[in-house]
Specification:
five-stranded antiparallel beta sheet, single chain, alpha+beta, 3 domains
Length: 314
């Protein structure tokens, strides 16, 4: 199979923090096990009857145990503060996290600290606030359990190796990534299997099929007119001909004349099956403790991924 990675994944199914928790590793100190990042800076915040004026910074939390701290100072006379947590996949566009609204702070309950554990599944969170009737003092922070150890670089390499191993034995690419898949000729049948599973279909954008003739002139086919797409859920997607159509005619370029650009993988780490995540953790444990030589853990990993393995051959 001739496939070239175009855009690698930006998130991974298992985080370094989760691996260290699995291996029971931490920094050995309380301060080394946590970090804290401001979302809304502390200070006096002016009246704003909206959630678009006092907007905090996004903090990446995927793979971490996270706690949002709302430190309320002194409210102005009759002033109120409403704070809520928003979540996002990309750190750009956010939506309110269900259950993320803090108790409203008034002059009756100011000068106190309020906390909420984030239990959602998005990559980023932030806080936004509304202030009514008078300026109020407050700030928000995101606290993450993020133990740092001297082995972090080695553990990161082990984690990536474990992810690659699970992808190899399942025939999958686990999280969103873009690939170019090359063919030397058009198939005899009316469909083309697309590798790696979880084919993502963005109408009019991807998958895209193009081909080159003997002069190297590239032609891009038109979806719905020249071909159709079947994502087929978690399994192999297909590109197939509409009724009555045929693959392009003409002499093909001698090397990699047909290119299919596609995006595949689950779109969020939370969507990756728990058995595959467990397999990654156990294989990383095997690499960390035994250099990949433990037969027992190797057999366990095979059993965990059996039902997720793509059987089709290319």
């Amino acid at each position: 199979m001739n496939a070239v990675l175009v855009t690698p994944p930006t998130i991974y199914p298992v985080s370094l923090s989760e691996l260290k928790a699995h291996l029971r590793l931490d920094s050995g100190t309380f301060a080394g096990n946590i970090d804290q990042t401001q979302s809304i800076a502390p200070g006096s915040h002016a009246i704003a009857d909206n959630y678009t004026t006092h907007v905090g910074a996004w903090v990446e939390v995927i793979g971490y145990e996270s706690l949002v701290s709302f430190a309320a100072g002194t409210n102005g006379a009759t002033g109120t503060v409403d704070v809520k947590i928003q979540e996002s996949d990309d750190g750009v566009t956010g939506t309110d996290w269900t259950g993320g609204a803090f108790t409203q702070v008034t002059t009756a309950n100011d000068n106190a600290t309020y906390e909420k554990a984030y239990t959602g599944t998005k990559r980023y969170i932030r806080t936004v606030a509304k202030v009514l009737l008078a300026a109020c003092e407050f700030g928000t922070s995101v606290i993450r359990f993020a133990a740092t150890t001297a082995e972090d670089d080695a553990l990161t390499a082990i984690l990536y190796a474990a992810i690659e191993h699970i992808q190899d034995i399942t025939g999958r690419k686990l999280l969103t990534q873009k690939w170019d898949y090359f063919l030397q000729g058009w198939p005899c049948g009316d469909f083309i299997k697309v590798p790696f599973g979880n084919l993502q279909n963005t109408a009019g954008v991807e998958p895209v099929i193009s081909w080159k003739d003997t002069d190297g002139t590239e032609t891009t086919l038109t979806v719905t007119t020249d071909y159709l797409v079947e994502t087929n859920g978690e399994w192999l997607g297909k590109i197939f001909l509409p009724y009555g159509e045929s693959w392009p005619s003409g002499t093909l370029y001698p090397s990699n004349p047909i290119k299919i650009r596609f995006t595949c993988g689950w779109t969020a780490a939370a969507d990756v099956p728990s058995l595959l995540k467990s397999a990654i953790l156990f294989w990383a444990e095997n690499l960390y403790l035994h250099g990949g030589r433990s037969a027992e853990l190797g057999e366990l990993v095979k059993n965990l991924v059996t039902n997720s393995r793509i059987r089709d051959e290319f």
